[in-house]
Design brief:
33% helix; six-stranded mixed beta sheet; 182 residues; three-stranded antiparallel beta sheet
Length: 182
């Protein structure tokens, strides 16, 4: 993150096409949002490597399964395998996993790429498709706080505080369990 202003923070989001509307709201108007379909994992990494490595914040929004080394679309089709993320330089990025179960076993591959931080929740991480709920609201507020220059840990703390103001739905309670993983 450079300078702390929204115009200077490079946000990249990669998501299930069915989550595109809500992911765009979460990522902000200046973010690059790439969806699957049409862009599956190998193509995402090959065509976007420079963008991925230059991003200050990377948001992933797919389905994950505990102990599986891939992420999936809602229809169960595999999007990206963990080994496709090997070799990326994520050292400048904060990663926000909207994916269920802290991204499953893909998390270990992301950790090995040494990002500044990884934020995620161990639960189902309930979110919406068109209207932000739970995890989406957490990610939105996290991005906003990160944008003004807060550390990832402090941005998450402030996002959680913001969620406490609204209705305490199942999705909000689930999102309250997000943590700084790395």
């Amino acid at each position: 993150m450079r300078g702390g202003s929204l115009n200077e923070m490079r946000v990249l989001a990669y998501c299930d096409q069915s989550f595109e509307i809500v992911t765009r709201k979460v990522a902000g108007g200046d973010a690059l949002v790439i969806t699957c379909p049409p862009t599956f994992g190998a193509e995402f990494v090959a065509r976007s490597k420079q963008v991925i490595e230059a991003a200050d914040l990377i948001i992933f929004n797919f389905d994950a399964v505990p102990n599986r080394t891939a992420w999936y679309l809602q229809n169960g089709e595999q999007v990206i395998a963990a080994d496709q993320l090997n070799g990326l330089d994520l050292s400048r990025a904060v990663i926000f996993l909207m994916n269920c179960y802290q991204g499953g076993a893909v998390l270990n591959t992301l950790k090995a790429q040494r990002p500044k931080a990884i934020i995620g929740g161990a639960g189902e991480n309930l979110g919406g498709q068109t209207k932000p709920v739970g995890t989406d609201i957490m990610a939105l507020w996290f991005r906003r706080w990160l944008t003004v220059g807060l550390s990832p840990a402090r941005a998450l703390e402030m996002a959680k505080a913001r969620l406490k103001i609204g209705a305490q739905t199942a999705s909000v309670k689930d999102a309250q369990k997000f943590e700084v993983i790395v």
